[in-house]
Amino acid sequence: MANQTHVVEFHFLGFSRSFKVRLLLLGLFSIVYALTLVGNTIILMLIWLDARLHTPMYFFLSHLACVDICYTSSTIPQMLTNLQSPGRAISVVGCAMQMYIFLALATAECFLLAVMAYDRYVAICHALHYTVLMNKRICIYTATTCWTCGFVLPLVHTVLTWQLPFCGPNLIDHYFCEMPALLKLACADTRVIEKITLVGCIFTLLIPITFITMTYIRIIAAILKIQSTKGQRKAFSTCGSHMTVVVLFYGSAIFTYMRPESSHSPGQDKMISVFYSIVIPLCNPIIYSLKNNDMKTVLAKILQF
After folding, report:
1. Which end of the chain is more exposed for a tag (fewer CB within 10 A), N or C?
2. What are 9's strand-pairing partners?
């Protein structure tokens, strides 16, 4: 890789050169990162400790929590380091690894959210066959497939990106090695990679979100057929958390990766990236715990001891 580029390291421009602004952001993002780790770890702990949560829905939720822990850990520590000491370098290899790991975890989350939608569809529309259609073997297989697709599909984008020559400047106008920001530094035509990225986004973003949308249309139609208002409310409550996460995650990801390169602006890209790489992993445990009666019951039971 080093033989294919004149640049041997990159520097992040980050958010601001002002010491006061950096100090404020350092404190804010440190708190957000700590809460994200604690919140998702609590979800994992609750699911592991209580047998009532050993169901397919919580099985996939535990994988989502794992993704979010790793997802934020791939970017926030680097950002916090740069806020403390602006101008610190990251090697070309380190930047490539960060970009790949970030894309891999984001892709895995895309597929996990689609699988979680299917789980809710089976639970509501085929309740009598739920234990058969979502048995332990199928759950393990689908989760493994999500992780495998996550770490295989981004290989193409990563390899193609780092085949490009980077001959300077080496200042990334971002807070981590995100692909759109890196492509702006390449000393070559990037239109082919941009087209390949668009095709990749169709597989990792558009197809899953279309599947999720169609699934929820079927779910809503089934819920509306339920006679009791209480039954409808309970059915909607089991899907509400997931729908919220889907809208937030897919909306921001599509906005970032499926816009034309000419419409990208560094400031806007950084703000959107903060939303889906930092804010959403923090919101996931809050959304799933506050809107989930089972999680609240198990947490209350543990806190009583």
Report:
1. C
2. 91
Whether the CB-CB separation of 56 and 119 falls below 8 Å is answered with: yes
pTM score, whole prediction: 0.89
Alpha-carbon distance of 160 to 174, in angstroms, equals: 20
Cα separation values, 215 from 31, 116, 202, 211, 251, Å: 36, 10, 18, 6, 17
Using CA atoms, how far apart are residues 235 and 220, in angstroms rounded to an integer? Answer: 9
3-state DSSP assignment of residue 96: helix
| Tokens (6 digits) for 124 | 């509501």
Point out which residues pair with 172 in neighbouring strands: 12
Q: Is the peptide bond before 56 cis (omega within 30 degrees of 0)?
A: no
What is the secondary structure of 146-206 as a DSSP string?
HHHHHHHTHHHHHHHHTTS---S--EESSSS--HHHHHTT-SS--HHHHHHHHHHHIIIII
